[in-house]
Amino acid sequence: MAGLRLAGVIGDPVAHSKSPLIHNTWLKRAGLPGLYAPLRATAETFEAVVETGWAMGFVGFNVTIPHKERAYRLVDRLTPSAEAAGAVNTLWRDSDGGVVGDNSDGFGFLENLKAGADGWEPDGRSAVILGAGGAARAVAAALLAAGVERLTVANRTAARAEAIAAMDPERARAAAWPPEPSAFEAADLIVNATSLGMVGQPPFDLALPPLGPRVLATDLIYAPLDTPFLQAAAAAGARTVDGLGMLLHQARPGFARWFGVAPTVDAALRDAVLTGEGCLP
Ligand code: NDP
Questions:
Q1: For residue 135, which of 162, 176, 164 has the smallest C-alpha distance?
Q2: In 10 A of CB 221, how many CB atoms?
Q3: Which of 12, 16, 194, 274, when mutated, tests ligand 1's pocket best, judged by the most ligand atoms within 8 Å of its CB?
Q4: Read out DSSP for 1-22?
Q5: CA of 183: how far to CAs of 174, 211, 238, 255, 278, in Å?
Q6: Which of ligand 1's atoms lies nearest the C-alpha of 198?
Q7: 260 C-alpha to ligand 1 centroid (Å)
Q8: Mean pLDDT, consecutive 10-residue segments, the chain of 281 residues?
Q9: 71 CA to middle of ligand 1, Å?
């Protein structure tokens, strides 16, 4: 079809990815002739899949597990958020053909809090991140860029928490694992960025001190939606925002860049992703 625009998500495994559902729903809503496909690539084939995609006329890609760091090393240019996160989840080509790598996880994280907690903003706040993997790093970079006053990172492997704290030694520090109750003192925001509590992973079993409604708690995990961490935070009196919105919002910058239309995250999209009854090709 003339004018058909192709994009896709590259990962391994990729069959479980919700991204095709999100982007194909937006394409249909916008009435655009396009297709967003899941593309499986191993460590050996990742670069060939990207090259073949460009040669076929793809306008861009999302990159997911386990290729985000590899994509970071592959691109010609990085956006500031990709540079800070040390990982790339969105690729497009500039007018000169150069490949640009962006990381929209931090954007999706902040937009989800804004939408889910009455316009919540990080400026001047104190945040605690549990975990120090790739997603935690993107979230930390976004919180620091958005003006958080204090950032505490607690992680099982201390060196990874220290590496994130080193992004801004004035405002960020690493804390012990498991975190002492004092690590949560004065926290406005607590983020679970570990994989604890995710379907198929070990349970989240950290004790949380009393928190109260001033504290906002959010989990990056969205399977299940109501995670053990969110349940514990709610029992401690905190407000909660689940992790599904982060996934939906992180998809926005890529779609806008590739297809030239700013998409909307709403309840219908959320339902489509939850039920798997969105628009798949
Ligand atoms: P990584 O594998 O990079 O990091 C996993 C983190 O969990 C590390 O901090 C790791 O600690 C910690 N962890 C794992 N097992 C244990 C354990 N038994 N005890 C204590 N800590 C543990 O994953 P990502 O950063 O990419 O993803 C983290 C979570 O965020 C995943 O559940 C993922 O699905 C979710 N996610 C959600 C997104 C969204 O859009 N909502 C986007 C991206 C991720 P250690 O360093 O010691 O190994």
A1: 164
A2: 26
A3: 194
A4: -TT-EEEEEEESS-TT-SHHHH
A5: 10, 12, 16, 38, 41
A6: 32
A7: 32
A8: 86 94 96 96 97 97 96 97 96 96 98 97 98 96 97 98 98 97 96 96 96 97 96 98 98 98 97 81 59
A9: 19
Q: Around Cβ 107, how many Cβ atoms within 10 Å? A: 21
Residue with CA at minimum distance from ligand 1 atom 2: 133
C-alpha 134 – ligand 1 centre gap (Å) = 7
Return d(Cα 16, Cα 12) in angstroms, integer.
10
The helix/strand/coil state of 74 is helix
SS3 262: coil
State both tokens at 111. Answer: 């937009």
Distances from the Cα of 155 to the Cαs of 28, 74, 183, 231, 236, in angstroms?
Answer: 41, 29, 12, 20, 21
pLDDT for res 78: 98
Give the Å distance between the CA of 121 and the centre of ligand 1: 24
Quick one: 269 exposed, middle or buried, by C-beta within 10 A (0-12, 13-18, 19+)?
Answer: buried
Active site residue 18: no
Ligand 1 nearest-atom number relative to CA 201: 15
